[in-house]
């Protein structure tokens, strides 16, 4: 008799992108990995920096954070004039595979700071353009059924905003909430669907006069809840986006529909504005 196979269990990944013995801010790591396109920045390498999870192992972080100008005064491409903060700033970092990280640091006379700066600029420009194209294509697929599914889930939640809120222009919202490049990118992609979201809300409001107000109220309430527990900057935006699509592991369609609604309200309503100090 053949014994039944043991059930395969998938362990959760415990590593975080860019995890290192050095201390980098979450904003720096998010910016660095967001611009990398999951590929080594060495020209023509293309080695992926994150391996997908399998049935037996969590996702694996393969990328290495490399300094253009060394993190110390005696390291590769050292620049004693830089402060510690400047050395660990995203502008002085690039992501490489293990092989090319070792190579550029061992042969630092061959691989100069100017050369690495050029790699970073070219690689991030290509990765960013690819990311924008893919995100725009996904957003274009969002239709009324996805918007309706997300909105219905949001309206099922309870909560009313408190405090006195004053309308703030989108650019000021970005600054006042310390939203970074990733948030700006996402909101720009989402805003491309703003007119369709507006038409959807107008149509729903013909059936339910209170539809738009309740939708907006849910977002404002969640914003105030996140602020009250200390969420700020990119973490705040991620929290609002998770609330927008309403599920822990949403489908692509639901995720982009949530982003479209959040972006529309970000532009036109008092979402991401606060009466909190």
Question: Can you give a write-up of this model?
Answer:
The chain is mostly helical and 277 residues long. It folds into 2 domains: 106 residues, no CATH class; 128 residues, no CATH class. The strands form 2 sheets. Strands 1-2 form a two-stranded antiparallel sheet. The protein has a two-stranded antiparallel ribbon with strand order 3-4. A hairpin with an 8-residue loop joins strand 1 and strand 2. The longest helix is centred in the middle third of the chain and has 28 residues. The chain is elongated. The N terminus is likely disordered. It comes from Sphingomonas rubra.
Quick structural summary:
This protein is mostly helical. Helix content is 52%, strand content 4%. InterPro entries: HNH_nuc (IPR003615).
Keywords:
11 helices, mainly alpha, 2 domains, HNH nuclease domain-containing protein, 4% strand, two-stranded antiparallel ribbon, 277 residues, 52% helix, HNH_nuc
